[in-house]
Design a protein that fits this description.
This protein has 546 residues and is mainly alpha-helical. 74% of the residues lie in helices and 1% in strands. The protein has a domain of 265 residues: Orthogonal Bundle (MetI-like fold). It is globular, with a radius of gyration of 25 Å. The C terminus is likely disordered.
């Protein structure tokens, strides 16, 4: 079939409008959405399930309770810490500004194990109380303990969001309130809280997403929740469709949260009529109570879990500290880095395509790119697993043709599916950051490249890439941190012979080998501390405003 002159011209115009880079990115994005679409279609299949109404009521009740209480406690803690650090001057302010974000380096399930040991009958805390003649045992392996763990490990999402927002907020709001003789209580309640509604909503949305998608804490503490219910119905009862239906209910809750967040974002907007002045910090004369508040927060959220892990790890140090630990660590860093690189690469291409576009197609692409993060890891793992089960069934003739006769599940048990699920789950993290980075760059720079008759690909590599490099590095670190802490996808999809840090932590914990689990947990936390420190360093740079 030959192309006439008009067909050739149309093809040329299409290739000019949609470069090969954009086409590859859009195709990759659509492929990552297939498992989620597959999951939603399976939810409407009429079939019997072991899921009872009593369990469903318990899942919904516990989830709502945790969302409300954790949302309030994490929001209050993150907002107050960010407000004080942003507008007040006191000793060790710069130190606390960085270290109060470090709890983000501790995965919630590791903090849960650490605190259960710390509060145990023979744990460090009861023994400490015993020295003062107090014999008291605290049982935190329940919903109250889960709320506590989520609050102390997830508040940094609110803290960092508010900290970034306050940094670029006009100081006139605070100064005008001080001129009117507002004390510190009114300054916070009348200025700080209304001003911080936008980052507070954004941070709390992330907190809620992490809470409803978490598996490790509620599984270890025995709390009836959606993630554990989905996993147990599938794993223990082999009821795939029951797990799918439970997933559909959870998706409704998540989409409701996302809709409310989007609605509030549209309503909450702030504008300044003059050039923003730098914030003049309020000198605190007696900072004793502030230092006590900050120190207790740091001890409870970071130091206690770390000390307990070190204490446990002493007993297994000689047994675990060997070449195998190094190999597992390198495995984790290697695969986490690859998945992070793929997420950032696809997100960069998609963000490059949608920048400056307002059409329906561009908006749809943006929504698809951010859909995965709103879906818990258990759901992503299930959808990817069963999607590739069906793909493997279709490819059996091809496997036989190329000489693979013994195995039927080739793709489903490979590293490819493992990495694919990470990309589906966390691509939104990098896309949101990169998309926000594009909005801070003058669009005339890209128009100038087009005026100089540079192609889309040439502009992409010569203009977009150098300008966006700091944001790309920041996005890589954010995705790396999220994948490093991910548990459900790792448990469900990692190949049998692939060993990772989170896999060992889960295995040793369920075998009640807490000393061995502590060593691997400390390595995860060390990697997390390095990543969080680099993230905070990037946030201090003027050219990166996440």
């Amino acid at each position: 079939m030959r192309l006439d002159g008009n067909s050739t011209q149309v093809l040329f115009l299409l290739m000019k409008k949609y470069s090969i880079i954009h086409i590859i990115g859009i195709v990759a994005l659509i492929l990552t959405c297939i498992p989620i679409i597959y999951l939603l279609l399976q939810a409407f299949r009429p079939t019997e399930t072991v899921l009872s109404n009593q369990l469903l009521i318990a899942y919904i009740r516990n989830t709502i309770i945790m969302i409300l209480v954790v949302g309030f406690s994490a929001g209050f803690l993150g907002l107050t810490l960010a407000w004080i650090i942003s507008f007040y001057d006191f000793p060790f302010r710069r130190f606390f500004k960085v270290v109060l974000a470090l709890p983000l380096a501790i995965p919630p399930y590791i903090a849960a194990v650490s605190y259960s040991d710390f509060m145990y009958v023979n744990g460090l805390f009861p023994r400490l109380l015993g020295t003062f003649g107090i014999t008291k045992h605290f049982d935190i392996m329940n919903i109250h303990g889960a709320i506590f763990i989520y609050s102390i490990t997830l508040y940094p999402y609110v803290y960092i969001a508010c900290l970034s927002f306050f940094k670029y907020t006009s100081a006139s709001f605070v100064e005008n309130a001080r001129v009117l003789k507002a004390n510190w209580v009114k300054l916070f309640s009348k200025v700080g809280v209304p001003l911080a509604r936008l980052p507070l909503v954004a941070g709390l949305t992330l907190v809620i997403m992490e809470l409803v998608s978490d598996f490790g804490v509620i599984d270890y503490y025995g709390v009836q929740g959606f993630s554990t219910g989905i996993y147990k119905i599938w794993h223990n009862y082999s009821d795939f469709y029951g797990a799918i239906r439970l997933s559909a209910i959870l998706l409704c809750i998540i989409f409701a949260v996302v809709y409310i967040e989007s609605f509030l974002r549209r309503r909450l907007r702030y504008f300044t009529t003059s050039k923003s002045k730098s914030i003049k910090l309020i000198r605190v004369k007696n900072a004793r109570y502030l230092l006590i508040y900050f120190t207790l927060t740091l001890i409870i959220t970071f130091i206690i879990p770390l000390i307990q892990l070190v204490y446990n790890g002493i007993y297994a140090y000689e047994k675990i500290w060997n070449i195998k630990l190094l190999q597992v660590t390198l495995n984790t860093v290697y695969y986490t880095s690859i998945a992070s690189f793929i997420c950032v690469g696809i997100s960069f291409v998609i963000a490059n395509y949608v920048k400056g576009k307002k059409g329906i197609f561009a908006k749809t692409i943006s929504k698809l790119a951010t859909m995965g993060y709103s879906i818990p890891g258990v759901l992503v793992g299930l959808s990817v697993m069963f999607t590739f089960f069906d793909v493997d069934k279709l490819l059996v003739p091809l496997y036989r043709f190329i000489g693979i006769k013994q195995k039927v599940l080739v793709l489903s048990t490979s590293v490819f599916v493992f990495m694919f699920a990470y990309v589906v789950r966390f691509m939104a993290v990098s896309f949101n950051n990169i998309n926000a980075g594009y909005k801070k760059i003058n669009p005339n720079l890209f128009r100038a490249s087009a005026t100089l008759k540079q192609s889309t690909s040439q502009t992409f590599w010569r203009v977009d890439f150098p300008l966006m490099l700091p944001t790309l590095l920041m996005s890589f670190l954010l995705v790396f941190l999220e994948i490093l802490k991910e548990l459900p996808i790792t448990l469900m999809l990692k190949p049998y012979k692939l060993e990772t840090l989170t896999g060992f932590v889960h295995t040793y914990t369920h075998n009640e080998q807490y000393s061995e689990a502590s060593i691997y947990s400390l390595v995860i936390i060390l990697l997390g501390i390095i990543t969080v420190s680099l993230i905070m360093l990037f946030r201090e740079k003027k050219y990166v405003k996440s």
